[in-house]
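Batch queue: ligand-bound targets. Current item pairs a single chain with nicotinamide-adenine-dinucleotide. No template structures supplied; prediction is de novo from sequence plus SMILES. Inputs echoed for audit trail.
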Amino acid sequence: MKVSIIGAGDVGAQTANEIAGRQIADEVVLVDIVDGLPQGRALDIQQYCPTIDSETKVFGSNSYADTRGSDVVVIVAGSPRKPGMTRDDLLGINKKIVESVTKSVANYSPNAVLLVVTNPVDAMTYAAWKASGFESKRVLGMAGVLDTARLKTLIAEKAGCLFGDIEAMVIGAHGDDMVPMMSHAKIKNRSVTEFLTKNEIDEIIKKTQLASQKIIELTKRSTSFAPAGSIAKMVEAILNDSRDIMPCSAYLEGEYGYKDVYIGVPAVLGKDGVESVIEYELDENEKVMFERSVTHAKENIAKLGFGEMPEKVIDDTKDVEDEKKSTFVSDNMENAISKITADMQKLGNEPDQGSGNVENAKGEKSPISSG
Ligand SMILES: NC(=O)c1ccc[n+]([C@@H]2O[C@H](COP(=O)([O-])OP(=O)(O)OC[C@H]3O[C@@H](n4cnc5c(N)ncnc54)[C@H](O)[C@@H]3O)[C@@H](O)[C@H]2O)c1
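Prediction returned. Tokens below.
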């Protein structure tokens, strides 16, 4: 089993370390545009393997040819968030990187499953799907497993229970409007509402939505340990054809009432990627939150030039309670359209980071082969 990871930055390198450490694959190839970075990190990780009796081979490269014949390709190349940035601020720059990377890896591994991590992940997964020409089930995004880990951490802290006793899932967009599915959350098979008050649950939801922001503020850099563990968990499920149900960004074709969008939903993971999407009954509040999430993801997808701009437009200053009372379309439409037009103009002016073009998000140059 061969896994390639494109992007040898914080998350990519940590993911290679997790996959090699857990001996999930026989071979891990780490690729980056920066000369020396993937090679050096691969050597470090390879030398870690004997300390934990892992026989995984780890290799670093600046050439996509070395990814040939991968079973899974993790796409984590691109700019991360800095303090004060939202994931959406990365839309334009990361689209170009993700599209160029995807074309190169699809060329060398036409049968691979593509696992997209680059933010904003739901829109980037859509862009990767389009660029790959793959069936939608073989392109998926990682976020829900990470958001669920964060939710479980907060539930365990408040309820004083073990992580392993918690059953919970976070769906929706990977952003501040993600949807912790508290109506299905359980501790030892009993509803969390038996252990936590409504106020405590509301506080856990908010903290889950803002979990990464808190870490970015503290460390002044993007998160990496929990994302890498989450990616490794998904890669393992795919390579082992485990059929585990995990929340991931999957393409909807009518499930939950939505189409032509990548969004976080519970999915059965197997050797072909998303084997099926599982529909859970959502309560009224979760339905509103999920609709908001889908609208947000569709807005981002439309800003990339795909699909259609949704009729509803998100007003970030409103909370879900307000949305239940009004449809918020007309008041905000004008503002939203000018904001989107400005964003589109910005996208058109980004420096080119396309296939084979040798400049990364930091403006560093490298002779990478784009295949
Ligand atoms: N989906 C999630 O839950 C999740 C979690 C954490 C991070 N992320 C996202 O993952 C991405 C990477 O985060 P990071 O902290 O590792 O960033 P990083 O800056 O540490 O690493 C990114 C790497 O991508 C490389 N790169 C840029 N352009 C490239 C190209 N064209 N080809 C090959 N490599 C290229 C850079 O050289 C850099 O080494 C960000 O977009 C971040 O927001 C997503």
